[in-house]
Amino acid sequence: MLKTFKIGGVHPPGSKLSAGRPIENLPLPLSVFIPLAQHIGSPAVPVVARGDVVKTGQLIARSNGFVSANIHSSVSGKVKKIDSMADSSGYPRQGIMIDVEGDEWMEDIDRSETLSREIDVDGQEIIDKIQKAGIVGLGGATFPTHVKLIPPKGMKVEILLINGVECEPYLTSDHRLMLEKADEILTGTRFLMKALKVKKAVVGIEKNKPDAVRLFAEKSKSYEGISIIELKVKYPQGGEKQLIKAVTGREVPSGALPVAVGAIVSNVGTAFAVYEAVRKNKPLIERVVTITGKGLANPSNFKVRIGTPTSAIIEAAGGLPEDTGKIISGGPMMGRAITHPEMPVTKGTSGIILMKKTESRRQEVIECIRCSRCVRACPMGLEPYFLMTASEKNLFDIVEKERIMDCIECGSCSYICPSKRPLLDYIRYGKAKVGQIIRTRKK
Amino acid sequence: MDKLFTVSPSPHIFSGDSTRKIMYRVAIALLPALLWAVFIFGLDTLRVTSIAVGACLGVEYIIQKYLMKQKPSISDGSALVTGILLAFNVPSGLPWWIIVIGAVTAIGIGKMSFGGLGCNIFNPALVGRVFLLISFPVQMNTWPSIAIDGVDSITSATPLSLIKEGLAKGMPVSEMLESMPPVSDLLLGYSGGSLGEMSALLLIIGGIYLMIRKVITWHIPVSVIATVILVSGVFWFSDPVEYINPVYHILTGGLMLGAIFMATDMVSSPMTPKGQIIYGVGIGIITICIRLFGAYPEGISFAILIMNAVTPILNMYCKPKRFGGR
Ligand code: SF4
Ligand code: SF4
Description:
The structure holds 2 protein chains of 2 kinds.
Chain A: E1 23-25, E2 31-35, E3 45-46, E4 53-54, E5 59-62, E6 71-72, E7 77-86, E8 92-100, H1 123-132, H2 145-148, E9 159-164, H3 173-180, H4 182-196, E10 200-206, H5 210-219, E11 226-231, H6 240-248, E12 263-267, H7 268-280, E13 286-292, E14 300-305, H8 310-316, E15 324-329, E16 336-338, E17 351-356, H9 357-360, H10 373-377, H11 384-392, H12 396-401, H13 412-416, H14 423-442
Parallel strand pairs in A: 1-14, 9-10, 9-12, 10-11, 13-17
Antiparallel strand pairs in A: 2-8, 3-5, 4-7, 5-6, 7-8, 13-14, 15-16, 15-17
Chain B: H1 19-41, H2 44-67, H3 78-88, H4 96-109, H5 124-135, H6 137-140, H7 159-168, H8 173-178, H9 183-188, H10 200-212, H11 219-238, H12 246-251, H13 255-262, H14 273-293, H15 300-317
Helix pairs in contact in B: 1-3, 1-10, 2-3, 2-4, 3-4, 3-5, 4-5, 5-15, 10-13, 11-13, 11-14, 14-15
Bound molecules: iron/sulfur cluster (SF4) (2 copies).
């Protein structure tokens, strides 16, 4: 029996249309817009001004504080302006716009593809390089990686988990990266292990990627301390807490960080970026993005420079289908719908999904029939039907007691509800309110 | 590319399941038992069922449209299921106007007075049935004979009511059972009773279908049936002359119909496995208590209604297992 997490979970259809498509380089766009806040934490501070000429890989915004991340230019060219653009949530976000001229890289970046597996740097040096390269979690959470590598005082990390689950339907960027850059990912994992001073790392991959499972089982033999585990397919196994539970059997206590049970989780894309930063001195300026959708001509996986407009990726995959009703940045379960296709790819963009008009329409909401499907689906053991009703009625003290803050916003409840109730919409509202209450209480 | 796109929060995909599909699956699961009833009781079965279903749909439509001033939603399948279940719980010879009264009570009082689908505390079909049982005891206990030849037919009484009467006269159960239909007849459905409670086997098949289609889980039916076997078994073991054996208990008096189709009504049963098991055990105990010590020969309808009332409390105290402990 393959392992998986115990409570809840759903099985949305995989729809991995682009799984067989090797990663291609996306042609350089005419201009990029690089947001200053692409990570959790405070936005970076620009160190260039309008009119400056920058090279690919040059630092253009400095991290502002410990929980923040450096930002580098993903192209060479001239800084056109530092301005704001509405992001997916509709708020204007500051960013740097650069007109592309040629592709001239910083001299200290090694652009060769040759594999180099030596682990000859010490832990602190690795952390410094990761911080300098502006690496954040590429699975979508975008938490600055160097912060994760320095556990809070008194906490001991015992195991590093590498997340190759990619449980979101449609997305294949991690899968392709695993197939094409296995050694790089495993070397990056060794760096992370060294930085964390752990002896053991486990790569978790779901059964629906048998080629990646086979490849990693074979390759990991030549990397000390790294093993792989094949997991049963179940959403949201890529959630940190669910992955830790599935692999180690440990449950991260309510409100605590994974490190409380001695575990740190990193995505395969992050491990690859760590490899490039440490071995090749390359900052995080590009990532693999899946572009997919049922109506799209060529669902693909592209290596995309950060800041590239979404429209350029759509063009490269065959153009926007006529009946597109919704554009999603990220996966269909947790991703965000974007308002216009000029929005840039950021460090956290794992995929772009074009949904047909018919797919994107929400169905009629009817009364809760108390079928308990949402309760059975919730991976955190919550009662979504109740949290929704109580949030709707503004009963915030009650929803707090019923652990609304444990909700990981995986969307399993809304997905499964036969009455099509917008459970997560109301739970988010409840969480936001309870969050405010908790903050004022602390003051 | 300056079209406007839909912006909505995640998730962006939804399962193909719908409340309507769930309701229609319940109706499909009831079909084998319905066909059997047609075979046994003849066309009267269709008369009763169509009147019950038609009246339930009609009452719901009228109340939604003219009293509640909402868009009627009778196509959601819930009134259809209530109608079939109401028909399943009455004798096949019931006059049409009594069926209509049952439907008005079931939908009007049992469901719409609470606010409609999802808001009711009690199983609507059972509210209708119990109302009829109390108001029209004679008609509700007139059991027509079986329409097919070559089978020993029992008229005017169900096995359980015969035994209850016999016990009142001081006859020992063990003797009475000899003149009752054998267990195999009960399993297949050759005894007297309400429309849909005849064949335990076909009801079980319907239940298995519902479990495979993930409409219900095993918790409620299994805990009800197991409790009935256990509790009645204790009595039977202590005195096989005075008490009916457990097998007879679970095959008669609508127990299968109640355990598989009535107690599992989602709206009026608990949400968590723990709550569902307590609920099922409660139904089992109360059923046996009514059968052995109460005035009615059956009892599962009352037992389910009583536990329906306890459901909100069970939901409050039986929480799912939280991730990450407390
Ligand atoms: S899944 Fe939907 S209908 Fe079922 S209990 Fe939850 S909210 Fe109610
Ligand atoms: S979104 Fe929150 S409440 Fe809904 S299933 Fe996921 S964790 Fe549970």
